[in-house]
Design a protein that fits this description.
The complex is a heterodimer of chains A (160) and B (796). Chain A has five helices and five strands, in the order E-E-H-E-E-E-H-H-H-H. With 160 residues, chain A is an alpha+beta fold. Chain A is globular. A seven-stranded mixed β-sheet of chain B has the order 3-5-1-12-9-10-11, with helices on both faces. Chain B has a five-stranded mixed β-sheet with strand order 7-15-14-13-8, sandwiched between helices. The chains are: A alpha+beta (160), B alpha+beta (796). Chains A and B meet through helix 2, helix 3, helix 4 and helix 5 of A and helix 1 and helix 17 of B.
């Protein structure tokens, strides 16, 4: 039994019908074909599915699409709509903060939320706050650098 | 979709060029297998055995077939009826008695028996994934449970047999080295250091789970398979030639963006075959993406060795001989390269960086009712390095020698150097790496730091690891003599287009390594064209001529060398075209910075002009030269490459909680020449992250009785997280370029994972030794450290 929802995704109004059991990540990937948001686990641990809901980082595998009714969702595709990278995306590129790219969208979304919530987070705090995002490629060294660089770049920048 | 980039072509070799592939990954435009939806898409779900070891008495799929949306349900009987073969093992090992290894069938869907929890019993295909899952619950499988063989050390003596026709659950007992000379050296040794070592079993955990989207085309009776895989041509060879009996023309394997591999995506998996076979049965594409739980249960695991290792020395600490006995767990079946990992990739590395004159290793490979075990980042070489470097440091402690000095005393200095275990190191220089690592790690200041920590009630330790690895798999003739059932060359094609842009087709596969950038740097530098003008294509048997794929740190040294060979051919032909245009002889043409010129004159043609002429041959020596500018090369290395390095780890332990923290991790590596230092450092970081994960956190645990996987999720299996790891101090030494490949490169992908575990454990033992702890097994969790301290301090 499909249920209607209305929400904003990457700045565009979306009206859709979803099954009650549809996860937000399934809705984004399968119905809206926004495949930049990834699924890396089934226990809400890896963070590859992280998106922003009303400006807050959430794991889209861990909530129903229905729960996003009325919300504003930003996915990785919504960060650089005009092709100009968001300062955090640019920082990841500049610091080689990604290798295979699979955890990257979730990592970038988490990093932006982190820096907004804790504008002065130091390296230790960044490591602590990235606890919910797993990366198997980088050993996190360059991710921490990237978040610090993105943090500096975002100061005074109105992101999103 | 790649970033607009105007990085100039000057000095591209050795430059930390930002990656071409990053733009698509950072904007969500990467395309991984699960992102692909095909017309008429159906979805597959595997019903898996809940038991570690059981006879399959009966399977009733009637109710499942009637379930809503179900397209088909297949079991072992169906694949057997179609004569679908079992999965092959790519490396034949012989036992000491000369008999070939036991390689029992590895069926695509279980036949007769299920041999590990997660063994695939049935494939359900439905219109939606949810429908397939619902139907799978309606399949009635009657099992007759059997005792499970789980423990590596006890598998050979277990009464239960994983395979009814494999006695002692033993695939082979393999020996390597001169046993008599080794025993003789031990007999006259002044001191022998002995360690019992467990190399803990790991689960690879690429963050992208395995995925397959298999489709069948009626028009030409062919298959196209998207699969998250590290070596699509090997996948095609194994699946086509050995399992499904298909010629290459009817099987196209595409490995699009792949989210990490670490070895686990080298192998041909049962799911890949079952889905490909089934796509013809139902004449529709079938998609399957592993849930993380399935990855834990069915991705080939890594390591899992139990070893007794001994080092014999004279009174001055000079190594005389090494003797190693290892039991290696193969899991339930021999996976694609499983047999080579604890043998050819392990015992041949036991010389390390040292002149140990006699070495003997004996390896028993056992079957257990666990997931197959195969290559995982380093594959055999981390296990060897762990044995050597733990022994060396324990020996230093026992001999009351400085751990760096005992290493220096035994370093190899003269190259090429033939080890007693079959390898010939072409080049190396170990002392400068160790000295530089000591400097960066401020070893001189360590006693003061240790004292300061002591004042705070904490224990500090410093540990070394001087590793060697053999990369660049492999000279095909040598590999063949050692049991490889395939060649291990690589292929590169350079296609120069009429406009002067270039497409590079490589048999290597990038799943994070950045080949699209590194390989483009090589080509742009050589041809003197912009980096943007070079596109690198990989991962598609329909586009790339051939390839052996990416593993064993071979991409640059073997794949890059193939590209260099193809570039030689391009340059040679382009010079002929330029000579014609410039009305000069071929021999007088010089090529530099993208310009062909006649020596000693100002007459010249650009690379673009020559490319255009090759495709618009109006003024062209058609009687002597074919038009076009497109060259292909196969490169087969003449030796392995031997990266090496010195790692130093400093840890601090809280003796009250057992918690240990890496204060500083220093790595100095000799990778020979470097193309992109940024990417190389990133590879080392990642390797160290995985190595420290093994040493500190990760442990795959099966219940010893039931064979149930107890670490089957990220809630139970401790993956390293950002807060678990330190910053790394990483430097590449000026180094000793490889002497036998055109780039002088050695490979850097596995070094970190090889060098770091012993450095950490040696540091931990150093920290704990004042308390009487002289050994600790991986992973050295706080609980294990705390127990070791309590045990050492308990009154006798």
């Amino acid at each position: 039994m499909a249920i209607p929802i209305r929400l904003t995704v990457n700045g565009r109004a979306v009206d859709a019908q979803v099954e009650p059991h549809t996860l937000l990540v399934q809705f984004l990937r399968e119905q809206l074909r926004l495949t930049g948001t990834h699924v890396g686990c089934d226990t809400a641990q890896c963070g590859a599915c992280t998106v922003h809901m009303d400006g807050r980082a959430v794991k889209s595998c861990n909530m129903l699409a229905l729960q996003a009714d009325g919300a504003s969702i930003t996915t990785i595709e919504g960060l650089a709509p005009e092709g100009q990278l968001h300062p955090m995306q640019e920082a990841f590129r500049n610091c080689h903060g990604l290798q295979c790219g699979f955890c990257t969208p979730g990592m970038v979304m988490s990093a932006i939320a982190l820096v907004k919530q804790q504008p002065n987070a130091d390296a230790a705090a960044i490591r602590e706050q990235l606890d919910g995002n797993l990366c198997r490629c980088t050993g996190y060294h360059n991710i921490v650098r990237a978040v610090q660089e993105g943090q500096s770049a975002m100061h005074g920048v109105s992101a999103e | 979709m790649n970033a607009p980039d105007s990085q100039h072509n000057q000095h591209l070799i050795g430059a930390s060029v930002k990656r071409k592939e990053d733009y698509r990954f950072l904007t969500g435009n990467g395309q991984y297998t699960d992102d692909i939806v095909l017309p008429q898409q159906s979805y597959g779900y595997f019903l898996r055995s809940p038991h570690a070891h059981a006879r399959i008495v009966s399977i009733d799929k009637t109710e499942a077939l009637a379930s809503p949306g179900v397209v088909a349900v297949f079991t072992g009987d169906d694949v057997a009826a179609d004569k679908v073969g079992g999965l092959p093992c790519g490396w034949l090992i012989h036992s000491i008695d000369g008999s070939p290894m036991k390689e029992p069938p590895h069926p695509v869907l279980a036949q007769g028996k299920a041999r590990h929890v997660g063994d695939q019993v049935a494939l359900v295909i439905a219109e939606t994934l949810q429908q397939a899952k619902d139907a799978a619950e309606k399949i009635d499988v009657q099992y007759d449970e059997l005792p499970a063989v789980v423990n590596t050390a006890h598998a050979a003596s277990a009464t239960s047999l994983v395979h009814d026709d494999v006695p002692e659950n033993t695939s082979y007992v393999w020996g390597h080295g001169d046993r008599a000379a080794t025993d003789a050296a031990f007999a006259k040794a002044a001191h022998v250091t002995t360690l019992e070592i467990v190399n803990n079993r790991l689960i690879p955990n690429a963050i992208e789970p395995r995925a397959v989207n298999a489709s069948y085309t009626r028009q030409d009776d062919s298959y196209t398979v998207y699969v998250s895989n590290q070596n699509p041509h090997v996948e095609r060879l194994l699946m086509g030639a050995f399992v499904l009996g298909l010629p290459e023309s009817r099987l196209r394997i595409i490995a699009p963006d792949v989210g990490g591999g670490f070895g686990s995506k080298i192998f041909l998996y049962a799911e890949d075959v079952a889905l490909t076979w089934a796509s013809k049965k139902i004449k529709r594409p079938i998609k399957w993406t592993a849930e993380r739980s399935e990855s834990f249960l069915t991705d080939a695991h890594g390591r899992d060795h139990v070893t007794k290792a001994e080092l014999a020395m004279d009174a001055d600490g000079k190594f005389l001989a090494m003797r190693v006995h290892t039991t290696a767990n193969m899991g339930a079946y021999l996976s694609t390269f499983a047999s080579s990992v604890p043998t050819i990739l392990y015992a041949t590395l036991l010389a390390g960086q040292y002149t140990t004159p006699a070495i003997y290793a004996e390896v028993r490979a056992v079957f257990t009712n666990t997931a197959p075990v195969d290559a995982y980042r380093g594959a055999g070489r981390p296990e060897a390095t762990y044995v050597v470097e733990r022994l060396v440091e324990a020996a230093a402690r026992e001999m009351k020698m400085d751990p760096a000095e005992i290493r220096r005393k035994n370093f190899i200095h003269d190259f090429p150097y033939a080890t007693p275990v079959g390898l010939t190191y072409d080049t190396g220089d170990y002392e400068p790496c160790l000295a530089r690592a000591q400097e960066l790690a401020d070893v001189k200041g360590f006693p003061a730091r240790r004292e300061e920590a002591k004042q705070r009630g904490k224990l500090r330790g410093l540990g070394y690891s001087c590793y060697i690895e053999a990369c660049g798999l492999a000279p095909s003739n040598i590999a063949g003599a050692l049991g490889a059932r395939a060649g291990l060359f690589e292929v590169g094609e350079i296609r120069v287009h009429p406009t002067g842009t270039v497409t590079v087709f490589t048999g290597s596969h990038s799943h994070g390594q950045g080949h699209e950038t590194t390989f483009a740097q090589i080509v742009a530098d050589r041809l003197g064209i912009a980096l943007d003008a070079v596109e690198v294509v990989h991962g598609d048997t329909g586009r790339v001529p051939f390839g052996m794929g990416t593993y064993g740190s071979r991409s640059l040294s073997v794949g890059g060398s193939a590209i260099m060979k193809a570039l030689d051919k391009i340059e040679a032909k382009a010079k002929k075209i330029a000579a014609h245009l410039l009305e000069a002889s071929d021999a007088d043409i010089e090529f530099k910075n993208g310009t062909f010129s006649v020596a000693g004159t100002d007459r010249s043609k650009t690379f673009g002009e020559v490319a255009l002429t090759a495709y618009v041959p109006h003024n062209y020596p058609l009687d002597k030269l074919e038009p076009g500018l497109n060259e292909n090369a196969f490169y087969d290395p003449t030796n392995f490459t031997y990266p090496s390095g010195a790692y130093i780890c400093e840890v601090e332990v809280d003796p009250d909680t057992g918690e240990s923290k890496v204060i500083k991790f220093t790595a100095v590596d000799d990778f020979g020449n470097i193309i992109n230092p940024m990417i190389v450092e990133g590879q080392v970081h990642g390797g160290i992250g995985q190595g420290l994960g093994q040493a500190m956190l990760e442990q795959c645990v099966y219940d010893d009785d039931s064979g149930q996987l107890l670490t089957g999720s990220y809630m139970d299996y401790a993956m390293p997280r950002a807060g678990d790891l330190p910053d790394f101090t990483v430097e590449t030494a000026k180094g000793t370029p490889c002497t036998h490949n055109p780039l002088g490169v050695k490979g850097c992908g596995e070094a970190g994972a090889i060098g770091s575990p012993p450095a950490f454990i040696n540091a931990l033992v150093d920290a704990l030794s004042p308390l009487g702890v002289h050994d600790i097994q991986m992973p050295a969790t706080p609980h294990r450290v705390w127990q070791a301290i309590r045990h050492a301090q308990a009154p006798n």
